[in-house]
Design brief:
The complex is a heterodimer of chains A (233) and B (462).
Chain A: H1 2-9, H2 11-41, H3 49-57, H4 62-65, H5 70-89, H6 91-96, H7 110-133, H8 135-140, H9 143-163, H10 172-189, H11 197-210, H12 218-225
Helix pairs in contact in A: 1-2, 1-10, 2-10, 2-11, 3-11, 5-7, 7-9, 9-10
Chain B: H1 17-31, H2 34-44, H3 50-54, H4 56-61, H5 68-83, H6 85-93, H7 101-111, H8 119-122, H9 130-143, H10 149-160, H11 171-189, E1 204-207, H12 212-215, H13 217-229, E2 234-235, H14 247-250, H15 252-268, E3 273-276, H16 280-293, E4 302-304, H17 305-314, E5 325-331, H18 335-338, H19 345-354, E6 355-358, H20 384-391, H21 393-402, E7 406-408, H22 412-424, E8 431-433, H23 435-442
Helix pairs in contact in B: 2-5, 5-6, 5-9, 7-9, 13-23, 15-16, 17-19, 19-23, 20-22
The chains are: A mainly alpha (233), B alpha/beta (462).
C-alpha cells in the first residue's frame, strides 16, 4: 500500500496538478482570447463593467444565495468554502507542494480544517438531498453532476478519516490512498468537467454581457453566408 | 412529418431541415459573438435549478420543459454535438445524438413558451443568460423559416410593405390621427397640443409603438402635451414612425434592419436624437442596438419619453398637479427597460408626484415579474390561454396583492397582455394605462397651451 501511496502523491499527483493547471490556463486563456476578439468585433463597445462586477461579486457572499432555496443554497455556500480553502491551506497539502508554495504560505489550524471538512461533507449530503427533493433539480441533474459530487465526497470524507484515523472503519493507509487517488482524479478532471467553473466563472459573467454586443455587420454577413441577401422577409 | 407548433407558422420547408438548421447555426456562430458564450456556458452549467425558482412560467406550469436551464440545454446539446471536439469524438464512437426534425420541432415549441424576460439571469450564480440562449435559438430557427406568423407578417410589412410599420398605418392616416388627437385634447382637456410632422433640424424624432396611434390615444396625447408644454424641439417622421422592433424577438438580422430605419429617419430629418415612446422592447432595441448597428458612439443618442418627462419635471419646465390621480395606482416594470436597471425610479418619481395613493408591487424594479407576454408572445393570439393562464399568473397575483385599481404599464405589449391577464384572472375592475395617460390628467398647462377652462374626466382622477 505504501508504494501505491507514494505513486499517488508523487508522480500521479504532479501529473494531475500539471494537467489541471495547464488545462485551466488553456480554458481561461481561450475564453479570454475569444472574448477579446468578440469585443473587437462589437459594434457598440460601451460595456457596463460596474454592473457586471456587482452581479458577479454578489455571489461571493451568502446573502443573495440564501434568498432563494435557502437550505440548498446555504449547503452550496458552505461546501464551496471547504472545497476552496482545504486544498490550498491544509498543512498536509502544502507539504506536497514543497518548493512551489512559498515558506510564508498560511496553513489552517487542524481543528478548523476538521470542522471545514465535516461541514463540507454534510453539505454534499445536503446538496444530494436537495437535488433529490426538488422536482426541477431532479429534472436537470445529469450523471456527471452526481459523479462529480460523489468524487468530491470521497475526497473530503477520506481526507477527514485519514487525518482522524480513530473514526475510520478502514485501514488508515487505505483511506489515505483513497483520499490522494480521488484527489488526483478530481484535479485531472477539473478542466474537462463542470468543475472548470472554478476558473471560468468570473469570465462567464463578463461573457454574458459581451455576447449582447453584436458585430455591426453580423446580420449582413449571416445573410451572405446563407445566400439570403435578397430573400424577402 | 408535418411541422407543428402551438402557434401559427407560414408553411415550413422541411426538406433537409436538420442540415439547414446546422448551416444557419454555423453561419451565426461564425459572424456573431454568441460562440464564446456557448463555449463557456456549455462547460460550466451546474444544473442547480436556481433559475427554476425565479421563472414565472415554470412556477405556474410546473413543467420541467419550462425550466430555463432545461430549455437552454436543448440548444447547448446541439452545440456540443456539432461544434465541439468532444461532440465529434462521441459521434465517431456512435454515442452522440443526431439532430432530427422532431428535435427542431421541440426546440421551436419551447423557445416561444419563454417570455425572454431574463429574470433567470439574476438568479444564476454562474452568470448564464438563458434569455440570450433563447434569443439565439429563435434566430437560428428564423433562418430556416420557423417564426410565429404574427411576428413575421408584422415585420414583413415594416421592412418591405407600403406603410413601413407593423400596424400597416399609412402616413396619411397617422397624420389624420394626430389631427384628431389635437382636437380631442383641446375639447376634453382644454389644452392646445401639437404633433409636428417632418420638421427638419428638430432635436428629437419621436417613435412610439405604432399601435399607440390605433389603441392608446391618451398615451399619445400625454406624450404630446408634455413635449408641447416644455417647448421641446421634436417631430414625427412621415416616412418612418414605428418604434416596434420584433427583430429583438426573433432575428438579429431583422433587429439590425429595423433600427437602421429609425436611424435613417433621424438622418433624413437632420435631427439629433431618437425619442422612444412608452414601449419596453422598442426602447431597449433602440437604446442598445442603434449604437451596435448604426455607428457606435457616433450613432444618435436614444432617450425614452419617461426620462424626458422626469427631466422636465425636475428642471421646473413641467408643472404637474400633486394628488391629481385619486385612484390607488401601481406600476408594472417592463422587463426590457427594468432588468438592466435603466428605467426603474424615473416613472415612480413622476407617479409619486401626481398620485394620491401610489403602491409598489413586490418584487419590483430589476426583479419584477414579466407580464407574461414578453419576447413577442403577446402578439401570438393562438397561445392566449397559455400566455395569460400560465405566463401571466404570477403577475395577476402581484397586481391583486397591491389592491390597486390602476396599473401603469408604459409599454404597448405589456398593456395588451395585462388587460387580457386582468380579464382572465378576475381583475376586471383594474384599469391598465400608460404613464402619460395619467400625466395628461395631471398636467398644469402653461398659459399658451390653455384654450378653454379644463373640465372633463381629467379633473376627477383616473
Amino acid at each position: 500500500m505504501d508504494a501505491w501511496i507514494d505513486l499517488a502523491r508523487g508522480p500521479f499527483f504532479r501529473l494531475s496538478l500539471l494537467i489541471c493547471v495547464l488545462g485551466l490556463a488553456f480554458r481561461v486563456g481561450n475564453a479570454a482570447l475569444q472574448m477579446a476578439l468578440a469585443w473587437r468585433r462589437a459594434g457598440d463597445r460601451d460595456l457596463p463593467i460596474g454592473s457586471v462586477i456587482r452581479a458577479a461579486s454578489q455571489w461571493l457572499f451568502p446573502h443573495r444565495l440564501i434568498a432563494t432555496r435557502p437550505l440548498y443554497s446555504l449547503a452550496s455556500f458552505l461546501f464551496h468554502v471547504g472545497i476552496v480553502l482545504l486544498p490550498i491551506f491544509l498543512a498536509g497539502h502544502i507539504a506536497l507542494l514543497r518548493g512551489i508554495a512559498p515558506p510564508w504560505w498560511p496553513t489552517l489550524p487542524p481543528t478548523l480544517a476538521d470542522i471545514l471538512t465535516v461541514v463540507a461533507v454534510l453539505a454534499v449530503g445536503a446538496l444530494l438531498l436537495g437535488r433529490a427533493a426538488s422536482r426541477a433539480a431532479r429534472a436537470l441533474t445529469t450523471a456527471q453532476d452526481l459523479a462529480v459530487l460523489g468524487l468530491l465526497l470521497v475526497v473530503l470524507a477520506c481526507g477527514f478519516l485519514a487525518a482522524n484515523p480513530r473514526f475510520s472503519p478502514l485501514d488508515a493507509r487505505t483511506v489515505l490512498f483513497l483520499h490522494i487517488a480521488s484527489g488526483d482524479l478530481a484535479l485531472l478532471l477539473t478542466p474537462f468537467t463542470k468543475l472548470v467553473h472554478c476558473a471560468l466563472v468570473p469570465l462567464s459573467h463578463l461573457l454574458g454581457e459581451v455576447g449582447w454586443h453584436f458585430p455591426a455587420e453580423s446580420g449582413r454577413h449571416v445573410a451572405i453566408a446563407l445566400d439570403k441577401e435578397n430573400e424577402p422577409v | 412529418m408535418a411541422f407543428q407548433c402551438s402557434y401559427y407558422l407560414e408553411p415550413v420547408d422541411t426538406r433537409d431541415l436538420p442540415r439547414r438548421f446546422l448551416e444557419a447555426f454555423a453561419a451565426i456562430l461564425a459572424h456573431s459573438n454568441y460562440g464564446p458564450v456557448l463555449d463557456t456556458v456549455s462547460r460550466i452549467s451546474a444544473h442547480c435549478a436556481r433559475c427554476a425558482t425565479t421563472c414565472p412560467v415554470y412556477q405556474a406550469s410546473g413543467e420541467p420543459r419550462d425550466i430555463p436551464c432545461q430549455r437552454s440545454e436543448l440548444l447547448l446539446a446541439i452545440y456540443r454535438r456539432y461544434f465541439t471536439l468532444a461532440g465529434a469524438i462521441r459521434a465517431r464512437a456512435g454515442t452522440a445524438f443526431e439532430l432530427t426534425e422532431g428535435y427542431i420541432n421541440t426546440l421551436a415549441e419551447e423557445v416561444y413558451r419563454c417570455t425572454a424576460c431574463r429574470r433567470c439571469k439574476l438568479e444564476c450564480p454562474l452568470g448564464i443568460d438563458h434569455g440570450m440562449i433563447t434569443h439565439l435559438a429563435r434566430w437560428i430557427l428564423a433562418e430556416v423559416g420557423i417564426v410565429p406568423k404574427a411576428l413575421r407578417v408584422a415585420t414583413r410589412e415594416q421592412l418591405e410593405g407600403k406603410t413601413h410599420n407593423t400596424s400597416a398605418i399609412p402616413a396619411a392616416a397617422m397624420q389624420d390621427t394626430c389631427e384628431f388627437l389635437v382636437e380631442d385634447c383641446r375639447d376634453t382637456y382644454g389644452m392646445a397640443i401639437s404633433f409636428p410632422i417632418d420638421v427638419e433640424g428638430a432635436e428629437y424624432v419621436f417613435f412610439p409603438a405604432v399601435s399607440d396611434y390605433l389603441l392608446e390615444p391618451d398615451t399619445l396625447m400625454g406624450n404630446a402635451a408634455v413635449l408641447t408644454a416644455t417647448g421641446a424641439s421634436w417631430t414625427i417622421g412621415s416616412q418612418y414612425f414605428d418604434g416596434i422592433n420584433y427583430g429583438l424577438f426573433y432575428s438579429d438580422r431583422m433587429l439590425d434592419r429595423i433600427v437602421s430605419m429609425e436611424a435613417a429617419e433621424v438622418r433624413r430629418l437632420k435631427a439629433e436624437k431618437v425619442l422612444i415612446g412608452e414601449c419596453g422592447h422598442a426602447s431597449r432595441s433602440a437604446k442598445f442596438f442603434i449604437k451596435t448597428f448604426c455607428g457606435g458612439r457616433a450613432a444618435p443618442p436614444v432617450v425614452n419619453i419617461m426620462e424626458y418627462t422626469l427631466q422636465a419635471l425636475r428642471a421646473g419646465k413641467l408643472e404637474l398637479r400633486p394628488g391629481a390621480i385619486d385612484a390607488r395606482v401601481t406600476y408594472h416594470d417592463p422587463c426590457n427597460i427594468a432588468r438592466s436597471g435603466w428605467i426603474i425610479d424615473q416613472p415612480r418619481e413622476i407617479l409619486r408626484a401626481i398620485c394620491a395613493e401610489y403602491v409598489d408591487m413586490s418584487p419590483k424594479g430589476r426583479e419584477n415579474y414579466c407580464c407574461g407576454g414578453g419576447g413577442g408572445t403577446v402578439s401570438i393570439d393562438e397561445i392566449r390561454a397559455f400566455r395569460t393562464g400560465v405566463g401571466g399568473a404570477t403577475k395577476a397575483e402581484q397586481i391583486r396583492r397591491t389592491g390597486a385599481t390602476v396599473v401603469v404599464a408604459p409599454c404597448a405589449n405589456c398593456k395588451k397582455q395585462l388587460r387580457e391577464v386582468c380579464e382572465d384572472h378576475g381583475l376586471g375592475h383594474v384599469q391598465v394605462v400608460g404613464l402619460h395617460d395619467l400625466v395628461l390628467k395631471a398636467i398644469v398647462p402653461p398659459p399658451a397651451m390653455q384654450v378653454a377652462p379644463p373640465d372633463g374626466p381629467g379633473q376627477s382622477g383616473a
